[in-house]
Amino acid sequence: MRNRRSARIARNDTRRWVVKRRERTRQLIELGGLVAKAGLIDLTDDDRAVIFGLLVEGAAKLRGERGNEALALWRRRGQRAFSLADDDEASP
Asked: What is the DSSP letter of 13?
């Protein structure tokens, strides 16, 4: 009973630092979901060094001379993948 009360209080805590922490936690969970949705966990056999290396390589490419082109390309691919995933979820 005491745990339920504590959990309810924690969910409704509106102190600035608590709200910011909750937002950051949600963002990290969503980003982890994208890594999973892209299939990187299975493709790398859950090797976090490889996944991090891919992300570092992507960041380096974005910092390069043709970063805007890469960004536009990856945005289109991501939007297409999202729309395909939405279509798959809508199919019975």
From this structure: -
